[in-house]
What we know:
Layout: H1 10-21, E1 27-31, E2 36-42, E3 45-51, H2 60-69, H3 77-81, H4 95-107, H5 112-130, E4 141-144, H6 151-161, E5 165-166, H7 174-184, E6 202-208, E7 217-223, E8 226-231
Parallel strand pairs: 1-4, 4-5
Antiparallel strand pairs: 1-2, 2-3, 6-7, 7-8
Helix pairs in contact: 1-7, 4-5, 5-6
Amino acid sequence: MLGAGAIKNEITAHAIGTLSRHPDAGTILEIGGQDAKIILLRDGIVTDYAMNTLCAAGTGAFLSAQATRLGLTVEDMGEMACRSHTPTRLSARCTVFAESDLIHKAQVGHSKVDLVAGLCHAVVANYLNNVGKGKQITPPVIFQGGVSKNQGVVAAFRAELGCEIHVDPDGHLMGAVGAAHLGATAPDQSAPFSFDLAEQSYETRAKPCSSCPNQCEVVYFYRDGILLDHWGNRCEKADVCTTSA
């Protein structure tokens, strides 16, 4: 629909981006603002992966929300966490439990430094118990995504896994780096990619198809008023609807 030369998923993009900088990578730990994933590599090939569920307890959004609750900026959390000698033990099960635990521990006198360190450890525990559960984490371990900029989380991973955690300076951009590599080596190089798409108008419209009893809700995708594609139909009869969408 966008005229790209290749169609790849984000797991492939992150793997290719990471391998371009760290060709011997064994495990990729990735925590972004809204999701988290783990990618296992052997000899430069993705052998397994997993992503988080709908819960955002172990992501950057969670840390950002708790920083606001503590009257801090999320950028200050990493340095502060590294100053703690006794991180507060916080629930890592989900956002609701962690927030409730944080409030209780603050009320009974835990310092902000220890609370922040506890949050970093909770993020790591949540990640390893959910995303990394059952996975064999093999060095070299590359930690990326926006949360990799938080030194407190890096230190917590190092303590939990007992190995060196490598963080690339561009770790928060590794998916984009991978996408660039994939685009540059795409099999379809018949025409250069047009960035004019940023100036074009895109629209989706949904409506039920009445061609058969299924009554599928079909989504139609338009660019500058021209129908490019549709999806949501369970049979080929939805094609009839494209002429009147």
